[in-house]
Fold each of these.
Amino acid sequence: MTADQRHGAEIDPATGYETTGHDWNGIRELNTPFPRIVIWALALTFLYSMIAWILLPAWPIGRDFTRGVLGLDQRQIAMQGYAALERGRDDWMAPFAAGNLDALAADPALMARAMPAAQRLFADNCAACHGTHGTGGPGFPDLTDANWLWGGSPDTIAETLRVGINSGHPDTRVSQMPAFGRDGMLSREAVQAVTDYVLALPGSAADAQSAGAQVFAENCVACHGENGNGGLGTGAPSLVGARWIYGGDRAKVLATIHGGRQGVMPSWAGRLSAAEINLLAVYVARLGANNQHAEAP
């Protein structure tokens, strides 16, 4: 027996390890020992898992789970953190619960603290429909212009947020554009005529003696006003501004008059606290005010 053979096993002269006896086109496969560091890592991992199973929440048992010796509950920890955040903003949030919103909006120091939180509140609850900056979208009003369906003061906005529009709240604001064409209230010719009249309103080019003007006077003035400026309290939008809720080209205006519209905003009472609703109302009112200041000559 040579020095390269021990107990009948072939020894690789370069590494000193035994071979498996397999030969791959002249390359012998080594029987390399399993690294001890890996064995120790596996052992430590197993030991840690055993300790974690005992100390931490780990095992599901039906609809519940074991709490572990430490009794940790991530839900409880998260709620405690949320409660701590709530306590941290009580000092500036409390005045919004039942305060004079105009007076609160006129307090620069309070607004500096409140508006970042209001912006996050708007992003979480309102931006999906009204857009990140409140500029609206198809079917959702622009909150930055001067035209409001029920009024743009903070108190009025807060009431709209509280009860919603065409919502399930008992005091909801109600607004609906009738389907004049679909329901047969106007003929096809009358719908087309009043469509042309409405499209001419923003540029003051509307012919007051036209057939469309007569249809408008008989069917639309009660909600939208004689000049199409809209009606506060009825939810009827202005027809003379540059921005339209459902689109201002002829096809979309025709579709609105023919098929009607009925937008919906949920009631936020019960979803948000009174203070949060008032905070949002001040924020939304400032969106419009800031935009009007920016557009002023």
Note: The longest strand covers residues 19-24.
Amino acid sequence: MEISNTYIESFIQPRNELLMEMETYAKEHHVPIMQLSGIDVLNQLLRIQKPSSILEIGTAIGYSALRMAITLPNCTIVTVERDSERVDLAKQFIARSEAANRITVIEGDALEVDVESIQSSFDAVFIDAAKGQYMRFFKKYSPLVPSGGILYIDNMYMHGLSDLDIKEVPRRKRTMIRNLKTFADWIMAHPDYDSTFFPVGDGLLICLKR
């Protein structure tokens, strides 16, 4: 028996006015932000891990960065976004929060920016950007995570597309889904990580570095 959305939503934590405003903006302007059930689980895992620093790949309008910063009042976050309009929006929203002094927004392509020049290591990395590039993001930034650190990766389910035979996936998304599946197979077999898939939100993958 499947659990109803109403029952799942009864466990979702309340948010402040700024976060609610951001959720409304994202819905009205079709900006992808993490699903509420998924980010609640992510934040609970972060409470358990207690990282002092997080690198986020894919800022969008700054919603998840703010959610993580509010959850972890002693944590600093560096977040990377290549869309200049979204960078501006993220900075505006973040500036209105009490966590503004703990979040650094970097504008640029995450595959090209030199994050290491800003900070040499992070306790956790959260990847939520171009799904077809997850393998490249992981390989570029996992060296910045020490043993015992965790990489969190969202959208592994990709709204159900990852569960389909590749021939059933719309042509324009096949390369992305093929890359996503290749990454999933690769990381689950990787000897340096203990990885687990959480079927929450749009699919959250947790990779603990050995």
Note: The chain is about 35% helix and 15% strand.
Amino acid sequence: MFTEKNYRRWLRLSILVIYLIIIAGAVVRMTGSGMGCPDWPKCFGYWIPPTEEAELEFSPNTSYKKGMVIIVDEELRVARQDFFTTDSYSESNWEPYTKHDYAVFNKFHTWTEYINRLIGALGGLVVLFAAILSLQFIRTRPKLTVLTVVALLAMLIQAVIGKIVVDTLLSPVLITIHMIVALLIVGLLIYLLYEVLPATTKYRNDGRLSKVALGIIILTLVQVAMGTQVRQFIDHQVDLFGYPLSSEWLENGPIIFFIHRSFSIVLLLLHAWFIFVAMKTWNHPARSYSILAALLLITISSGVIINYFDFTLASQPIHLVVASLILGLQFYIWMRLRSARIKA
């Protein structure tokens, strides 16, 4: 079990599951399901959430456990202790939920958020197993062990941030931080994976191309940061007008939106030049670069749909997820370039 090959497998699986978490989070955000579970880590006080609103109504002659939740007069009530109800509701057995005042049950939103949390828990377990496997390197390559444990700790931090996001009624700033931490975890796992890959995966170049690749990563991060600002504006519009989303909101949107939209053309041209040089001048294999080009076209196309077609065809989560895939692939290509410099 404790082999380098198995460690690589679990790193790959970890990266895959983190991207699944990003996808699930994007779906939660697109559908407005973030408060589908108004408490954390449980959901309405249950480890497996209710499927009908009737389950959250007061029930006479019923056993309740401490921490279980009901909705009374459009407010959450939490059981103070284990008890058995009488025929009538008694305020003394319950206390108000004080983190926020959201008390709406929607089966679709609840189970969408619950599945998101399950995938997050799965991600934590997968990274935990990778950390256990990394112990084989603690004497020979301690950096691998230390950084894998750091990735595990980052997953725990993500869980804490997720709790705070719920407690603050989906603070847009915290949601953005949540996303950034996920991208940092992906980058760290990709770095660890590259460190244990065979040396034949390196890309020949004269050093300048690796610097260009790093510059592209930085510019893409700037683009993503601008995109998060646009997303926060959309969240504000949702608070004002509710769902469904409307592209009309962007017509008089913040200036950052128009910069974000125009900057995508700059990034597309820069990537086209970079891919051309890598493949024609240095004869790099086409696979990674072809995938990168396809992802760029998908994210720009989804941005066009967002802008002109009222966020249809799941364009919003696609835009977000593909952008995160682009960053991961860019980082992987840069890792292959930076460690294989040769003289021109």
Note: The longest strand covers residues 75-79.
